Amino acid sequence: MASNPLQSLKALGQSVWLDNLPRRLLIDGSLQRLITEDGLSGITSNPSIFQKAISESEHYQEDILRLRNAAPDSESRYEALVVPDVQAACDLLRPVFDATHGDDGYVSLELNPQLAHDLESTLNAAERLRRDVGRDNLLLKVPATPTGIQAFEELIARGFKINVTLMFSLHHVRDVFAAYVRGMRRWVGARCDPREVKAVASLFLSRVDTLVDQQLSAIGSAEALALRGRTAVATAKAAYQHFLHVFHGPDFADLLIAGARPQYLLWASTGTKHPDYSDLLYVEPLIGPQTINTMPEATLAAFRDHGRAAPTLTEDVAEAEQTLARLAALGIDLEGSVAEQLQQEGMRLFEASFARLLELVS
Q: What sign for the dihedral angle of Cα 89, 94, 100, 103?
């Protein structure tokens, strides 16, 4: 086993992606070092990440001033600002993409969240951004909202590579996986090569615990308090069992034989927010093959420093199921109100960040 714990994750079948794409990583060579030394094999971004990076760094100011005269509108300026960074990151990860035959080595770019409830506009934006970025290892991000899942199925049926984001519950996982299988069957049915398609499903973790812990604290019983900090990991373990059932069971077997890729689960929102919880709460218990953990820089550094790599994802599954059952018995509605609130909050956050981005470049 490699001495670097991050490299050990790779040896156990889990990809390590970075949940950040500030320009400084490209300028100072840090991204290349992460790829070479830590085995980093992907990057995720979102409007909040870019808004923070652009507002806090001097590396964008010259381009912003230039684009105010060159690009016709704020969204065009924003894309002209970030697309070259996405392209550069894709190029650095291209050797990973080639070595894994398209299984890994991706950069994710979010579609305009203001289009999230408009199916046709989402599809048109995806077509345009795929063309403008022009990289085979680009993943476009769509949300797991009802309209987003419709768009996801259609985009898979058109041969796109997609990261479905803002998933918070098992019903989100089930709906997204089902849409992927339907879209893939349409793509294969049109006699297209299934190996051209790639999709991941981003299940957000720390935000789930933050909200559910508040509800458990409000209940206040000994049983409720003992369940704090356990919801997200339990949900992830149950989600992986569903992944195995769907993509390594009879219903996907013919597609697998034809060359279709399973839709990997991606653990997102993996930076621990509660000061009393382990800084690796959303990493160490969730290590398993055909999964991705996208980490903020602090979590990546923490795992490099003191992480323990072991195949933990299929351990304690019965306990995870009991945890979810106990939460339901206490009236915690994970599949309904919790998932809905978190997804709506996530959409509002991305929409607000995108609006601030447009203000920055306008």
A: positive
Distances (CA, A) of 198 to 146, 208, 309: 21, 26, 26
Of 10, 52, 141, 237, the active-site residue reads: 141
The token pair at 7 is: 């490299």
Per domain, the residue ranges of the chain are: 5-361
pTM for the model: 0.96
Q: Does residue 362 surpass a pLDDT of 90? A: no
- Phi, psi dihedral angles at 304 (to 5 degrees): -60, -35
Question: For the chain, what is the largest distance between any 2 Cα atoms, rounded to a whole number of angstroms?
Answer: 62
- Residue 109 β-bridge partners: 140
- The pLDDT, as a whole number, for residue 294 is 98
The alpha carbon of residue 310 and the mean position of all alpha carbons in its chain are separated, in whole angstroms, by: 22
Q: Within 10 Å of residue 350's Cβ, how many Cβ atoms?
A: 23
Catalytic residue list contains 10: no
Would you say 58 and 83 are in contact if contact means Cβ atoms under 8 Å apart?
no
Give the other-Cβ count within 10 Å of 313's Cβ.
27
On whether the CB atoms of residues 224 and 330 are closer than 8 A, the answer is yes
The sign of the CA dihedral 152, 156, 161, 163 is positive
H helix intervals, the chain: 5-11, 23-27, 30-38, 47-56, 61-70, 74-99, 119-133, 146-157, 170-189, 206-219, 222-226, 231-247, 253-258, 297-306, 317-329, 339-361
Q: Which CATH class is domain 5-361?
A: alpha beta
323-361 confidence digits (pLDDT tens): 999 999 999 999 999 999 999 999 999 999 999 999 988
pLDDT at 295: 98
Q: What percent of the chain has pLDDT over 70?
A: 99
Q: Whole-angstrom distance between the N-terminal and C-terminal Cα of the chain?
A: 50
